[in-house]
Design a protein that fits this description.
Length: 220
Amino acid sequence: MSEDMVKYYRNRAREYEQIYEWRDPDRQQEQARLGEELKQAFKGCNVLDIGCGTGYWTERVSETAERITGIDINEAVLKIARSKTYGCPTEFRAMDGYSMEFPPDTFTGALTSFWLSHVHREDMDGWIEHMHSVLAPGARVFIVDNTYIEGVGGRLVTKEGDPNTYKLRTLNDGSQHLIVKNYFTAEELVELFSRHTDGVTLGNVFHGRCFWWISYLLKK
Ligand SMILES: C[S@@+](CC[C@H](N)C(=O)[O-])C[C@H]1O[C@@H](n2cnc3c(N)ncnc32)[C@H](O)[C@@H]1O
């Protein structure tokens, strides 16, 4: 977790939700579908929202979940998340998603929206194991992130010998940030999550023009 990532999301907190207003019909359609699928997936669950940010998707999930705990490393985004109204009991805590302080099997659902792409490839297996450890057997896992679209969201940067890709992002205040941003095919997602739970197939994955998501019930 680079310090620049923390600084980047702290600086971006107030402008973050602008991305959900882009006037691209495909994006809006996929976003609407995502909202519906999230509500369906987490019905009645005790949900952990990892890297919850300003609570944009937390709000949607709260329409059907039983309760939600949102965690994020940045107080700046949590302040915005805490200012909103939710449909179920919801609390937010400042916490690092790589070292979450919850007893084993605490939650019956986990949501990670637009965060997996920021996990370095070498840390991914460890993070999935850690996330699974705080979930009860049979818990619903839902992970969503961006597909790669050339020219969208800054310039793609690669480094020789480094399996990760990066994006050079410029915020409204003119500050520039190089952040890790990894992209996945549907096959790579199945391969990645199959290393940690049984029964994940291409049927668990949606891979659209703007977003991908994977949703499965944890077997442990
Ligand atoms: C792209 S934003 C997504 C926010 C929200 N989930 C959404 O979909 O609107 C990524 C979030 O992850 C948070 N984050 C980055 N590194 C983190 C870490 N190590 N632990 C917890 N949160 C982290 C950032 O502060 C930021 O709010």
